[in-house]
């Protein structure tokens, strides 16, 4: 991966006016090259600066999410494998909110498209999916492009502390559901007959 990273940075640095297009294209090719999203966002901050890096990363990540949506429509068997993997990792009844997914995207160890699947499951249609994807991709791009190299230099102790610090937010931002029993909903009173 180190060689790919050096090659990517060299390609984008020497791209001239096409460098932003190369960078956005790398976001689209990222799954094929096994490049983490964090790496590309940090690279965008180093090469383009904070604001342009954020803009290019958001465009690239959001286009990648769009491609995932379209592939999900065309490849149902692959989606079923993703769903089974999600159920093993997160659980059967775990419906995450967009805010929770945005926080989980900040954790570099969680698969990007697994979280895209979570957005897909809570979305009604493409417009809703793209809105939720954009909302969950924005914090990722802002944090990793802004912090840049310092996030990659965290010690395991600091990284673990950050993850443990994020966990309470997952509970606070959970989807709140109220379960009402059949009797309570219809106002039925149980009667006991001594027959």
From TrEMBL:
Membrane topology reported for the UniProt record: Multi-pass membrane protein
UniProt main location, coarse: membrane
Residue intervals of the VTT domain: 36-149
Keyword Glycoprotein listed: no
Translocase keyword on record: no
Keywords: Cell membrane, Membrane, Transmembrane, Transmembrane helix
GO cellular component terms, A-Z: plasma membrane
Transmembrane segments: 6-25, 54-72, 102-124, 154-173
Any one Pfam family match given in the protein's UniProt record, by short name: VTT_dom
Protein's cellular compartments: Cell membrane
InterPro entries membership: TMEM64, VTT_dom
Similarity remark: Belongs to the TVP38/TMEM64 family.
Protein name per UniProt: TVP38/TMEM64 family membrane protein
Species assigned in the record: Paraliobacillus quinghaiensis
